[in-house]
Design goal:
With 323 residues, the protein is of the alpha/beta class. The chain has helices at residues 2-10, 30-41, 55-67, 84-93, 116-125, 173-177, 189-199, 208-223, 226-247, 274-282, 312-322, and strands spanning 21-27, 47-51, 71-73, 97-103, 105-106, 111-112, 128-132, 149-155, 166-172, 263-267, 289-290, 299-303. Helix 9 (226-247) runs parallel beside helix 11.
Length: 323
């Protein structure tokens, strides 16, 4: 009963999905949900176009490679927005593309990918959009119909404010009715969907304690005003932190209108390395993110998720003492 309640409520986080989409939940991190989504819905006998401009887009391409499924990847630059010229070129070059996979919030840089044009293209061509929304679900706007979203992968422990251990795939009912494309037993999301929607049980052991935590987290999301209010809360925190760092002369990696509300990436000032800043903040109870890949030596990332309202002013005061 708990699992069926969770799945039903996950499908109602966004009003647009309440009737047309259904969720299936598995034990694992957000990456397991992304891989389960690609296992189950990326076609075996046609290509998937991966639109990538960060670590997590590249990870989806690697998942399809390891699954032995045909794909093509845009291989975009990390600091650049989605390149629709390359997308259109690849679609013309590979007419057998049947699905498009993309990351919504690419936390490599903090960019919230603008999916308007890509989604409209998927809608016009009848291509299922498979969306990694691990770091955006429940805080950013997701246009399910306009972007022709077939499935979304997300996790309990990001914007939903639960604990790690459970993740989920939310897919159009039509996709659940198709044959599974999975070559995996554990990550075949159709088996979870079939069992959970029949009697609430799962084909493999679920992480029970995180299920109770997610149940409460979904209550708290509704009580706090839903995804729109949560995103607004994150945005206000981002602006407060930005006001402090602006005063210290710290600059953002990306133009500010390209960031999500959830996480921003900042350039390290000359003379300060990441380990030194990390350790200063951690000693006072704050943990920040390092950069990834070739950004590791030049940036730091601050996320705005969680019940941290009482900590923001203390963080800002600490940042003023740290630079």
């Amino acid at each position: 009963a708990l699992m069926q309640s969770i799945n039903a409520r996950l499908a109602r986080v966004y009003e647009e999905t309440a009737d047309a989409y259904e969720a299936a939940t598995l034990t694992g991190s957000g990456t397991s949900a992304v891989e389960g989504m690609l296992q189950s819905f990326a076609p075996r006998d046609a290509r998937t176009l991966v639109v990538s401009n960060g670590v997590y887009g590249e990870r989806m391409a690697n998942m399809l490679r390891m699954q032995g499924k045909p794909y093509v990847c845009t291989e975009g630059e990390w600091l650049e927005a989605i390149d629709m010229t390359t997308v259109n070129t690849l679609l013309a070059q590979y007419p057998d593309v049947q699905a498009v996979a993309v990351v919504h919030h690419e936390t490599t840089t903090g960019r919230l990918n603008d999916l308007t044009e890509l989604g409209e293209l998927c809608k016009a061509r009848g291509l299922d959009l498979l969306l990694d929304a691990v770091s955006s679900f429940a805080a950013e706007d997701i246009e399910f119909d306009a972007w022709n979203i077939g499935a979304v992968a997300a996790t309990a422990n990001k914007c939903l404010h639960s604990v790690p251990g459970l993740s989920f795939v939310l897919a159009r009912q039509e996709l659940w009715q198709r044959s599974s494309q999975a070559g995996s037993v554990y990550l075949d999301m159709h088996s979870y969907h079939k069992a959970q929607h029949a009697n609430g049980f799962s084909p493999f052991t679920q992480s029970v304690q995180p299920a109770f935590a997610l149940d409460v987290a979904l209550d708290e999301l509704a009580q706090s005003g839903g995804w729109e209010q949560r995103g607004a809360t994150y945005g206000a925190r981002a602006e407060r932190i930005a006001a402090t760092l602006d005063g210290l002369g710290i600059q953002t990696l990306l133009p500010r209108d390209q960031y999500s509300s959830i996480l921003w990436t900042w350039l390290l000032p000359e003379g300060l390395n990441y380990p030194e800043l990390h350790d200063k903040l951690k000693a006072e109870g704050f943990v920040i993110y390092a950069g990834q890949g070739n950004l590791a030596a030049s940036v730091f990332r601050i996320a705005h998720m969680g019940e941290i309202d009482d900590d923001i002013e203390r963080l800002c005061a600490l940042l003023e003492r740290s630079f």
